[in-house]
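Page 37, top half.
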Amino acid sequence: QVQVAESGGGSVQAGGSLRLSCAASGYTNCLGWFRQAPGQEREGVARINTDSGSAYYAESVKGRFTISRDNAKNTVYLQMNSLKPEDTAMYYCAARSGLSVCGTTSPAFFDYWGQGTQVTVSS
């Protein structure tokens, strides 16, 4: 059984920064961050293989967001800089149970989800 829990959302002005945290427990080496704005589909933002550190970013956040992990704390972070109003969404952390290559950010690949944390960016 894998469990994930997000924290760190909030409200910020455009150009500001936020750091999200995802505390994970259980057998997984693949964690991802997703977001969903009202009326839109859930979008994969970033993922990380916590064994190798290999990371992937969606084009919309590349160069602004950084995903990292602290394996000693079983925590994955999403540092979000230069935030834009279009980054406003509910952000979710998700895990793929077991060991995997962690080669996709398709939501269907991830089988354990957190409750989400709201990020609001005002202009």
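Page 37, bottom half:
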Amino acid sequence: VQLQASGGGLVQVGGSLRLSCAASGRTFSASAMGWFRQAPGKEREFVATISRNGGITDYADSVKGRFTISRDNAKNTVYLQMNSLKPEDTAVYYCASRLVAPSARPSEYNYWGQGTQVTVSS
């Protein structure tokens, strides 16, 4: 499984970005997907996760109400819509996959994308 994240960039406070993560391979529809982020000098942290069919989602408290995770199994792609961005959202964002159930724990994910930089300027 290969994951390719894209859509990052520089945005002003209050702006929006949509990240995409395209997956190769035949297991996408059988995989829960997650988004994580890592700021300089900090540990990788959970952002959002989604179940195989998209029926279950979960978010970190810091992004609830501002970020939305979704997926299109026909396109083997998972998305992260980020609204009302804040400077503290600045980080490298990673997508990840694991078979079966969604999880907020990075250690439970088997495959990772290369990351895409999001910078929110004030």
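Margin note: The two ends are 37 Å apart (CA to CA).
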